[in-house]
C-alpha cells in the first residue's frame, strides 16, 4: 500500500477518542431521536479462539459487562448472523435467553428487555457485533433498524476504522519484521509468549488501573511489537553463547530507540493518526525496559512516568527471560522466576500488581511455555 492511500485510510483519526468514548458520544446523539435505546456496545470476534469478547460500551463506568468472552459456536443464532450478515432481534429477553450463561444473566439482571445485534464485517471478514439494548420490550424490528440505519452506519464506521488502524499497525510491524527471516525465527516464540503473559497481567490489574477491554486488547496485540528495534542488532549478537562485553551491551540497549524510530516511521507513513491506540503502541516500544526505581533504560523513567502498558510488558519480558533457555543459562522454573520477580518488586523495580497478576496463573504460564518453547540454540544455528 502506498503512503497516499495510507494517509487517506487513517485521516479520520485526527481527533478520534477511544471507541468507548465514541460510542458514548454517538449514544447521546442517538437518544435525541430514539430515547428508548439504553445501551450501545461492540463485541469483538477473536477468530483464533472462536470467542466473542466484550470490547467497548457506551455505558462505560456505568453497569457494563467487562472482561468477558464466550464461544461463538455456543451462540447458534448469532453464529448464523455472523455467516449471513442478518440482524438478530430479541424482544423479550427474560423469556428468550437462558440465564445459565453469565452474559444472559447480566442482561436480565440489568433490566434489559430487547436487543438488536448487527454483525460487522471488515473487507468481508466478520469482526464482531454491534449490540443495541433497551429496557423496553418489543422495541427492535426491521422498520426500527431502518430508522436507526444512519446511526448504525456511523457506529459501523468508527468500529471498522479502529479495527483497521490497529491491525494496519500490527501488519506493518510484522511486514518490517518478516523482511529479516533470521530475526523473525529468533523472536517468534518469544512474541507469542509475551502476548499471552501480557493479557493475563492486564486482565488481573484492570480494576486497579481502570483498564477497559479496548485497552487490554491493544496492550495484548501490541506486545508483539515491543522488540521490533532488535532488527537493528545482528542475530549473532542476540544469540551469543557467552556473556556480552560492555560495547555489546550498549549496542543491545540501543534496540529500544531504534524500535521507536521504526514505529514512528510506520505511523508517519499512515498519515500520523492521532488515536489512543497509537499512544499505547509507542509506550510499549519505548518504555518496556524502564524500571520503577529509575534504573532501567534508555530514559531512566521512574514510578508514575512509566505507563501501565509498559509496566505490564516489562514484567512479562523479565519473566520470559528467566523462564527461557539461553546459550549461557538454563531456564528457571515458574515458581523460582516468580520469586525473583518478587525480589525485584521489593527492590522497587517492578509493579507489584503486575507481578501478582502472573503469580495467580502459574499453571497457565507453564502451558504457555510448553506450547511456545524457546528453540534450542543449536537448532537455531542449524536453520541459519
Automatic annotation (TrEMBL):
<dbReference type="InterPro" id="IPR029016">
    <property type="entry name" value="GAF-like_dom_sf"/>
</dbReference>
<protein>
    <submittedName>
        <fullName>HD-GYP domain-containing protein (C-di-GMP phosphodiesterase class II)</fullName>
    </submittedName>
</protein>
<dbReference type="InterPro" id="IPR052020">
    <property type="entry name" value="Cyclic_di-GMP/3'3'-cGAMP_PDE"/>
</dbReference>
<dbReference type="Pfam" id="PF13185">
    <property type="entry name" value="GAF_2"/>
</dbReference>
<dbReference type="GO" id="GO:0008081">
    <property type="term" value="F:phosphoric diester hydrolase activity"/>
</dbReference>
<feature type="domain" description="HD-GYP">
    <location>
        <begin position="165"/>
        <end position="374"/>
    </location>
</feature>
<dbReference type="InterPro" id="IPR003018">
    <property type="entry name" value="GAF"/>
</dbReference>
<dbReference type="Pfam" id="PF13487">
    <property type="entry name" value="HD_5"/>
</dbReference>
<dbReference type="InterPro" id="IPR037522">
    <property type="entry name" value="HD_GYP_dom"/>
</dbReference>
<dbReference type="InterPro" id="IPR003607">
    <property type="entry name" value="HD/PDEase_dom"/>
</dbReference>
